[in-house]
Amino acid sequence: MVRSWLIFLSLAPACFFSYAQEERPVHIGIFTDCQYCNCPDDGARMYRLSLSKIDSSVEAFNSLPLDAVFHLGDMIDHDYGNYDSVIPRFRRFIAPLYLVLGNHDYMIGKEFKASLKNRLGLKEGYYRVDLGKWSLIVLNGDDLSYFAPQTRAQKEERNEMVSGLYSGIHFNGMIWNGGIGREQMKWLKEQLTEARIAGRNVIVLCHFPLFSRKDHTLYNNSELFAVLAGNASVKAYFCGHFHSGNYQEKQGIHLVNFKGMVNTTVNSFSVVTLTADSILIRGYGREPDRRLGIR
């Protein structure tokens, strides 16, 4: 009896430490659409100012104990040479940086497109990051695109999808949007099933909104939302693309369209804290604070 009690005591600290680790809040940095270009301003888009705003976000994020930083797409506006100014700054983040591909990221010379993911350090355009009890699933909205490289099968799927949108008078069939292909959708469903079985909370990240301004949404937004809404593990969807930003809650899922960094004289980025019952967004610059309870 005494021996059994001593064994329990010896294991108890390890068990408590494991539990505490699992319950620890997760802290991530979020910014999107820095869209740097060494070119004159265009309306509200202050391209050259993006470099100093990236520097400010690096300083702010590096002052905090973040588990990860995510950029939600459109690192540059156009011209492959602009990556030479952005990538060195991105390397200064202390926390691991994860990139989401946007439409402007592929507005570069054709000769550079096939090797872009390698330049950015991406093995794949879509992937999963596990942090504590949370899974952050990054989707590649350039899977079906008019700018990213496309196989013949992807072109056929894209053209069929966009044709259907136009015939149904849906405005999200614009060339600056993108879609999720069949293979990626299958992969996503598998990831969501794994998360549900494991009891993990999920946030899906993609450049393109699901429900924002009508001409700035994912091609197959309704299909993707149906998949997300059908899995109780999904707590939120984070995106960029529509620079004015947006927020909705639909069927218990928080749809957060973060504001674009390029469209402001101040700045726009966020620190997001993920707890057992909430998503807490601390906004900087023009990004508002939000406290979102999870289903």
Task: Write up this protein.
- The strands form 2 sheets. This protein has a 6-stranded mixed β-sheet, with helices on one face. It has a 6-stranded mixed β-sheet with strand order 4-5-6-7-9-8, covered by helices on one side.
- The N and C termini lie far apart (44 Å).
- It has a single domain, classed as Purple Acid Phosphatase, chain A, domain 2 (4-Layer Sandwich), CATH 3.60.21.
- 32% of the residues lie in helices and 21% in strands.
- By secondary structure, the chain is of the alpha/beta class.
- A hairpin with a 2-residue loop joins strand 4 and strand 5 (134-138).
- It has 8 helices and 12 strands.
- Helix 2 (50-62) packs parallel to helix 3.
Short précis:
The protein has eight helices and twelve strands.
Give the total of domains. 1
Biggest beta-sheet profile: 6 strands, mixed
Q: CATH class, please?
A: Alpha Beta
Distance between the ends: 44 Å
Strand order in space, largest sheet: 3-2-1-10-11-12
Mean pLDDT, as a whole number?
A: 92
Poorly predicted segments:
1-21
Calculate Rg over CA atoms: 20 Å
Please state roughly what percent of the residues sit in beta strands, choosing from under 5%, 5-15%, 15-25%, 25-35%, 35-45% or over 45%. 15-25%
**Sheet/helix structural class:** alpha/beta
Helix fraction, binned, reads: 25-40%
Q: Tell me the CATH superfamily.
A: Metallo-dependent phosphatases
